[in-house]
Fold this sequence. Notes:
Blueprint: H1 2-31, H2 43-56, H3 63-94, H4 96-109, H5 114-125, H6 129-153, H7 157-165, H8 170-204, H9 213-222, H10 226-254
Helix pairs in contact: 2-10, 3-4, 3-6, 3-8, 3-9, 5-6, 6-8, 7-8, 8-9, 8-10, 9-10
Amino acid sequence: MKEKNKIVKGSNKLTIATWMGIFGIWYFVTKLNLVQSVLVPSPDEVWITFLNILKDGYNGTPLIMHLGISFKRLFVASFFAVLTAIPLGLLSGYFEKIRAVVDSVIQFYRPLPPLAYYTLLILWFGIDETSKVTLLFLAAFAPIYIACVSAVTKINQDYILSAESLGANHRKIFFHIVLPATMPETFTGLRTAVGVAYTTLVASEMVAATSGIGWMVIDASRYLKSNVMFVGIIIMGITGILIDVVLRLLEKKLVYWKGYV
């Protein structure tokens, strides 16, 4: 245990040193004017821009509103992705015929770049929130579905056969063996899905949006406001880490048997 804590502390120190190194390189590159400030603004300039946006908002909209609308799109899409992808993934993993119908469709659209079919979604659902949430939903759906299918196929068949020999019906086998056995990998898929949906957020806010943290970055890029772009990217990076931390804590709480079976 002590050895493990020592390794964790060593890793944390390396992580902190890495970020201090990145920040130091950024500071000295801008301080010595090695690149134009329009391309890479200084840390001071980014910090002041952040304070100004925090105080006055961006383009007349408070920063909290930009974050709120982006998170609303992200969480609504992720919620419906979880609601549909988990049961469909478990069924596809359990029944070969269902997998034969569903799997090829998921594998077809999964590698497509979001912008390739986003214009179609706009034509079908309009330019309001529906097309944006649908794009994020599709981005989040595939990782969860694939994780569930993979988890079911990895279940040790001896557990299921043993339960059947003891008289357990399909319902009991599902809730007492299949579901607990698939939860760890399903949670890994969920964390991946939220990450993928977050990266797609900027694409969803590129067209016909007037608010959102992704839109803020895109709008700033049109006017070469690199300081605003840096603020938006840093906020997205930090909030992305915070979301992942929350999911990790939730995973630790709900799937406490992970790593022990």
